[in-house]
């Protein structure tokens, strides 16, 4: 059996005829009892023209940003539902009811937004195969990355033509360090093997495979994620690469703002940025490298595969043409 025992508060708010949001009911679900893991959904029954967005939230300070990110996803034509998985058990439920009330404005016009308050901080819960996920694709993301809707649609289209792969906008890499004779976590100029959960699209079956194996190696690997409170994204990359024997697909975004990137003003204090950043980065990479080594040790093989290049949203011919006496890319117009 799955060890997941989080209680979930599932609050649904709908708009009354007077246009004032009103709390209609609030029911508690226990996903362990609701048997999402026992009843594997037949993917054929899931809808495939839109995806479910699962946003992980933790920091109350970031709620205003979370609100704008959820609103943007809600307005996207590729999105059917948004689930906010709130993984901070100490947040007062009053705060989340208020947030839910605020978000109900968007839900009336666009895709509905639901908040699920987890009673544990486990990072594995962002991959739980919830019964409310009724789409073949899911977009898993953090609460600090803002994508434009054109890029969301584009990435969803890329997923449709590569439904077995992981698709995303941020990539990292594993590598073998010959000096220490060991696997490390790194950023590489020309290749990648890991898509980050800052924004990751995949088929929802992978949620089931990640969360529901018990008495198996995946359960042991999930325990490492809980122990180190990190690396759930790396584990998902291990799982998918192992299944398809191929690396992920990196897509280019038109406009993306990563508020979690410490280069953003105001996210971390200036002092913190200058004093702590490089050492925190080193620490972060070191811990992620340890995850790669542990996963590799337990699995007994290295499933991660490299991919090269990035898919961009343009199909123009890029030959050079002479137009108006100038050498230009052939799909560029000369203004006369
Ligand atoms: C809800 O919206 C109000 C008004 O914009 C704002 O003051 C409040 O902080 C919001 N609360 C939450 C939890 O989002």
Automatic annotation (TrEMBL):
An example molecular function term from Gene Ontology annotations: transferase activity
Domain Glycosyl transferase residue range list: 51-314
Signal peptide: 1-26
Stored InterPro entries: GT64, GT64_dom, Nucleotide-diphossugar_trans
Record's keyword annotation contains Signal: yes
Keywords for the protein's UniProt record, in alphabetical order: Disulfide bond, Signal, Transferase
Domain of life, per lineage: Eukaryota
UniProt record similarity statement: Belongs to the glycosyltransferase 64 family.
Protein name (Swiss-Prot/TrEMBL): Glycosyl transferase 64 domain-containing protein
Species per Swiss-Prot/TrEMBL record: Cinchona calisaya
Taxonomic lineage: Eukaryota, Viridiplantae, Streptophyta, Embryophyta, Tracheophyta
């Amino acid at each position: 059996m799955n060890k997941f025992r989080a209680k979930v508060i599932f609050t649904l708010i709908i708009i009354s005829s007077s246009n004032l949001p009103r709390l209609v009911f609030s029911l508690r679900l226990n996903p362990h009892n609701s048997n999402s893991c026992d009843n594997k959904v037949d993917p054929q029954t899931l809808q495939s023209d839109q995806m479910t967005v699962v946003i992980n939230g933790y920091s109350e300070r970031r709620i205003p940003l979370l609100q704008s990110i959820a609103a943007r996803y809600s307005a996207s034509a590729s999105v059917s539902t948004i689930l906010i998985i709130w993984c901070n058990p100490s947040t007062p439920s009053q705060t989340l009811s208020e947030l839910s009330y605020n978000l109900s404005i968007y839900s009336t016009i666009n895709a509905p937004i639901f908040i699920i308050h987890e009673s544990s901080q486990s990072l594995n819960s962002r991959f739980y195969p919830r019964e409310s996920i009724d789409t073949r694709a899911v977009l898993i993301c953090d609460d600090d990355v803002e994508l434009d809707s054109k890029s969301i649609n584009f990435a969803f289209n890329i997923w449709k033509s590569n439904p077995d792969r992981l698709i995303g906008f941020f990539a990292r890499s594993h590598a073998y360090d010959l000096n220490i004779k060991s696997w490390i976590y790194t950023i590489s100029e020309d290749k990648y093997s890991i898509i980050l959960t800052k924004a990751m699209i995949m088929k929802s079956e992978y949620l089931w495979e990640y969360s529901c194996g018990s008495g198996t190696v995946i359960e042991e690997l999930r325990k490492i994620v809980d122990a180190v409170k990190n690396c759930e994204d790396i584990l998902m990359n291990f799982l998918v690469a192992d299944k398809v024997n191929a690396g992920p697909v990196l897509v280019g975004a038109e406009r993306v703002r990563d508020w979690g990137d410490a280069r953003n003003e105001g996210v971390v204090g200036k002092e913190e940025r200058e004093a702590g950043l490089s050492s925190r980065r080193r620490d972060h990479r070191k811990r992620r490298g340890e995850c790669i080594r542990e996963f590799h040790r337990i699995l007994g093989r290295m499933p991660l595969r490299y991919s090269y290049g990035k898919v961009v949203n343009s199909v123009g011919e890029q030959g050079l043409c002479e137009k108006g006496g100038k050498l230009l890319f052939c799909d560029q117009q000369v203004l006369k």
